[in-house]
Design goal:
Largest sheet of chain B: 6 strands, mixed
Radius of gyration of chain B: 18 Å
Distance between the termini of chain A: 24 Å
Strand order of the largest sheet of chain B: 6-7-8-3-9-10
Strand order of the largest sheet of chain A: 1-2
Number of strands of chain B: 10
CATH topology of chain B: Rossmann fold
Largest sheet of chain A: 2 strands, antiparallel
Order of helices and strands of chain A: HHHHHHEHHHHEHHHHH
Oligomer: heterodimer
Structural class of chain B: alpha/beta
Distance between the termini of chain B: 38 Å
CATH superfamily of chain B: P-loop containing nucleotide triphosphate hydrolases
Number of domains of chain B: 1
Radius of gyration of chain A: 20 Å
Number of strands of chain A: 2
Number of domains of chain A: 1
């Protein structure tokens, strides 16, 4: 038993070393982007998608939900930041965390839908995102800017917003790494696999699901806020665009739901692929990306990391 | 002997169907109560009512250690000290064997290392230790039954309920499971055992109840049940 415990400690050491290594590489690489004059816009969105896919992973890979209306949190975050900054003259660095709070409040309002599961949850989630979009579209034009949206004026600062996005990504990844090892993470996974059995084993399923749901809602809302700052403009058409949910789902699934590294790798691979295809075939971009996604799902149904770990189960102890 | 688990007038209806009909049962610590009956007799529904998955109808009650737990959520009932297995194994498929065993003790204050040590000892006892890092979905059906038994015992509950533990299990593994159930009863737990395998039921049980159409049609020691005409008729239709 002692030998096994030592082996476990050694596996833990490798796990955390690997996590620290991946984190450090990402951090150094992204931190040097503006300094080395690399493409800030591309890398800003790469970090945004890594964060979105990883946060989505909590709702889907950990808790077993498929929120097709995930963009609602992103949109509400974008509008919260824009309204607070433009209309209430809040400082940006106060408005951004408050956009995360708005995401949590929206998640609490949606919480009764957590009783649903499978496709029913997905459809209701999609409908609720549509309702959010309609509500904001029909709010007074003085508040939301109507169909023209809101412009944040002279507050745009690409490099500052780039580094804030980096900080958001780091906090999101650290949270998900913690979650993957925590008791809450285990309870969420048990709930995902069999909610009734988990409940009969003593897991308070509604509470556990709610915690996972709130974590999953906070980060896209902050992402929406940071992106509003970065682009300097928010309108309902882009803030609640269904493509945002689609891309988040595709990137997370491509990497492998339920793992920490999966959505990171999926976002990196697919955003690069998207960029490459867009450069070569600007008119066929979405078509080719769609085909690439179909091929990926057909041949790697558990995503890149998920398939690798299925083939090499002994690596599960080392790969976050 | 202390009564560990008791039901009084337990009834459960699904529309017009009475699945469990005024069932009174009690099991003491260290006692194994066998529950037999043909398919649809209400055995699993009875278990689901006891562990809180179904809310009983018509004022039926469940008592654990003398305390009424009727209508409480399944996770609350589990914390009162009821562990169970399922007819078709319901393991947490995409979790390692160790994590499967940790789920029922997630609320314990003990350090993680201690709980992992206990989980490894339990897997050793069930001869699953070499597979501890595999996902549960990678186990055979029989191994999943063993994993469920280990998961049930992990929080050391005073009451355990086993639903068809021997269904579809190889005789060698069956023998191994029977020994583990005997150990569990000898450790002072109240065991509720559902099985169609009458040989195992007669070997393990101190008392047996026979259900038919949700009602208890016979109750008593193994010898009483074995020769009971109502049980023979319900089982063989003669």
């Amino acid at each position: 038993m002692a030998a096994r415990s030592r082996a476990l400690d050694s596996a833990d050491r490798i796990y955390f070393t690997l996590a620290a290594l991946i984190g450090s590489v990402l951090l150094v690489y992204f931190a040097s982007v503006p300094l080395l004059g690399l493409n800030v816009a591309f890398h800003f969105y790469l970090m945004l998608w890594i964060t979105m896919a990883s946060a989505f992973n909590v709702a889907s890979g950990f808790a077993g939900y498929m929120p097709f209306g995930y963009v609602a949190f992103y949109g509400i975050g974008a509008f919260t930041t824009a309204i607070l900054v433009k209309k209430a003259a809040f400082p940006l660095f106060l408005a951004l965390p408050l956009s995360g709070v708005a995401g949590i409040v929206l998640a609490l309002l949606f919480a009764p839908t957590l009783r649903l599961s499978g496709i029913y949850f997905g459809i209701v989630s999609l409908a609720l995102a549509g309702i959010c979009r309609l509500v904001i579209t029909n709010m007074p034009e003085q508040l939301t800017g109507g169909s023209f949206g809101l412009q944040l004026g002279s507050r745009a600062h690409p490099v500052q917003s780039f580094y804030v996005m980096m900080a958001v990504m780091v906090v999101a990844l650290a949270t998900i790494l913690w979650l993957s090892r925590s008791r809450l993470g285990k309870a969420l996974r048990a709930t995902r696999d069999d909610a009734d059995a988990a409940e009969m084993m003593g897991v308070n399923v509604p509470i556990v699901r709610l915690y996972g749901w709130l974590i999953s809602a906070f980060f896209p809302a902050v992402c929406g806020g940071v992106e509003a700052w970065y682009t300097n403009v928010v309108d309902t058409e882009t803030a609640f665009n269904t493509l945002t949910t689609a891309k988040t789902v595709i990137y997370a699934v491509a990497g492998g739901l339920g793992t920490v590294t999966g959505p990171i790798l999926g976002a990196v691979a697919m955003v690069w692929l998207d960029e490459l295809i867009w450069r070569q075939f600007p008119l066929l971009n979405l078509l080719i990306l769609g085909l690439a996604t179909i091929i990926l799902v057909l041949f790697l149904p558990r995503g890149i990391v998920g398939t690798l770990l299925r083939k090499k189960p002994q690596w599960r102890r080392y790969i976050p | 002997m202390t009564v560990a688990i008791e039901t009084r007038g337990l009834t459960k209806r699904f529309g017009g169907l009475v699945a469990v009909d005024k069932v009174d049962l009690r099991a003491a610590a260290g006692e194994t109560l066998g529950i037999i009956g043909v398919n649809g007799a209400g055995k699993t529904t009875l278990m689901n009512c006891i562990c809180g998955l179904y809310r009983p109808d018509d004022g039926g009650d469940v008592f654990v250690g003398g305390e009424r737990v009727t209508g409480q959520a399944p996770h609350v009932v589990a914390h009162r000290g009821i562990g169970r297995t399922f007819q078709v194994p319901r393991v947490f498929r995409r979790m390692s064997l160790i994590d499967n065993l940790l789920v029922p003790v997630l609320d314990r204050k003990a350090p993680d290392a201690e709980l992992i040590g206990r989980a490894e000892a339990m897997l050793e006892r069930m001869q699953l230790i070499d597979l501890r890092h595999n996902h549960a979905e990678e186990l055979s059906g029989g191994q999943q039954k063993l994993l469920e038994m280990a998961r049930m015992l992990m929080p050391d509950p005073p009451i355990v309920m086993l639903d068809e533990p021997f269904a579809g299990v190889h005789p060698v593994l069956c023998k191994f499971m029977i020994e583990r159930i005997e150990e569990t009863a000898h450790a002072g737990k109240a065991v509720l055992l559902i099985s169609h395998d009458l040989t195992s039921i007669y070997r393990l049980s101190t008392r047996v109840i026979a259900l038919n159409q949700g009602r208890i049609i016979a109750e008593g020691g193994v010898d009483d049940i074995r020769g009971n005409p109502a049980v023979i008729e319900a089982y063989l239709g003669t």
